[in-house]
């Protein structure tokens, strides 16, 4: 169950999981609270049954409130009719609704996913109180990185027995090596795939590229993504006199990964980065800040980790890769081999299936 089927990372993982379960013979319904979205197309001919629950996002008006009460009653009726063995909720809205619904409908196992660090919820006392109640009614919380699990444990006091980690997965096409995209430059290409938001740390990346330029080691920085910081970053790039290509949102990221000499992620905080995973799957060397779940992906010689908000550290990390092609190739090779063994959609789905069996066995033998 999820709010909608947009292009976010959680929606991508849910679609992969639903398809994988159906392929393994598990009768799978995907319950959507508010509306569907572009990822609906990814589930066509998958055997997954989409159910539009008809909730409304704004419930302050009487009409919306009564509509959501009817939608919740419809959710209860659906669960009582279909009698699922497991209900899994993705993201906060569905989590808060799934917990009471599963309890009232006597669903044997309720699992909730945690996809990011929880600092953004601090200060929202009502949401946190409701979340803690929902957690009491939930059998297990599944984090997509150990850093996320540690954050849940520390902030919410959730015991170890109620937490586990299953990393995100990637579909087979993200491991296929694409032909390089055309980038008109004779300089090394540094690629960053991230929304142009303050917490992604782009300003430190631009300053790091300026340090390389001043040291006589210029590069071409290619930014894929868009957002509120674009105009400010364009102004900063002009003042620094560096070669930056702002490409906006793109769907042909694979070609730019193939063209890049190094992929960089300068985030100030992260949960589990899809951009880093995709670079690893493509066999590209990665330089990234040691925040959130990123060290779990790049440890043991699979990438270069640097301190966040530190342009000099970032410049040194880029220099270590751009200045040693053999070492860069080794980073990319180890990253891809590890990703193939640990980050495929099949591995992720198999882990979930094993988890469901374990929880059901515990429920029916207790």
Based on the model shown, name its key terms.
2 domains, 366 residues, 6-stranded parallel beta sheet, 4-stranded parallel beta sheet, Rossmann fold, 14% strand
Number of strand elements: 12
User: Largest sheet, described in full?
Assistant: 6 strands, parallel
Number of helices: 13
* Terminal CA distance: 26 Å
Low-confidence stretches: none
Descriptive report:
It is a single chain. By secondary structure, the chain is of the alpha/beta class. The relative contact order is 0.11. The protein is elongated, with a radius of gyration of 22 Å. Strand 7 (189-193), helix 6 and strand 8 form a beta-alpha-beta unit. The chain has 13 helices and 12 strands. It folds into 2 domains: 9-169 and 345-365, Rossmann fold, CATH 3.40.50.2000; 173-342, Rossmann fold (3-Layer(aba) Sandwich), CATH 3.40.50.2000. The chain has a 6-stranded parallel sheet with strand order 9-8-7-10-11-12, sandwiched between helices. Strands 3-4-5-6 form a 4-stranded parallel sheet, with helices on both faces. Helix 2 packs across helix 3. The longest helix has 21 residues, at 62-82.
């Amino acid at each position: 169950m999820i709010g909608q089927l947009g292009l976010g990372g959680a929606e991508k993982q849910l679609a992969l999981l639903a398809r994988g379960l159906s392929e393994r013979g598990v009768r799978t319904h995907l319950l959507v609270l508010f509306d569907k979205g572009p990822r609906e197309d990814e589930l066509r001919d998958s055997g997954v049954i989409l159910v539009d629950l008809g909730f409304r996002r704004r419930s302050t008006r009487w009409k919306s409130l009564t509509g959501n009460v009817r939608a919740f009653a419809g959710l209860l009726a659906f669960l009582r009719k279909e009698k699922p063995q497991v209900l899994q909720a993705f993201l906060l809205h569905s989590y808060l609704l799934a917990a009471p619904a599963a309890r009232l409908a006597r669903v044997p196992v309720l699992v909730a996913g945690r996809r990011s660090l929880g600092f953004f919820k601090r200060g929202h006392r009502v949401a946190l109180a409701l979340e803690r109640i929902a957690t009491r009614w939930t059998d297990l919380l599944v984090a997509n990185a150990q850093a996320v699990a540690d954050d849940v444990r520390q902030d919410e006091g959730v015991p170890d027995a109620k937490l586990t980690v299953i990393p995100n997965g990637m579909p087979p096409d993200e491991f296929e090596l694409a032909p390089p995209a055309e980038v008109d430059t004779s300089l090394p290409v540094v690629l960053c795939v991230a929304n142009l938001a303050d917490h992604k740390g782009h300003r430190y990346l631009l300053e790091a590229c300026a340090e390389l330029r001043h040291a006589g080691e210029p590069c071409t920085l290619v930014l894929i993504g868009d957002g509120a910081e674009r105009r400010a970053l364009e102004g900063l790039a002009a003042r620094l006199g560096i070669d930056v290509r702002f490409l906006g949102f793109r769907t042909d990221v694979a070609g730019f990964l193939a063209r890049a000499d190094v992929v960089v992620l300068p985030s100030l905080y992260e949960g589990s980065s899809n951009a880093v995973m995709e670079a690893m799957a493509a066999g590209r060397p990665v330089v990234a800040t040691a925040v959130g779940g990123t060290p779990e992906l790049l440890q043991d010689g699979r990438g270069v980790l640097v301190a966040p908000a530190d342009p000099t550290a970032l410049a040194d990390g880029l220099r270590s890769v751009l200045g040693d092609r053999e070492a860069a190739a080794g980073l990319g090779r180890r990253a891809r081999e590890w990703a193939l063994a640990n980050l495929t959609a099949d591995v992720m789905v198999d882990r979930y299936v094993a988890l469901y069996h374990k929880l059901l066995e515990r429920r029916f033998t207790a």
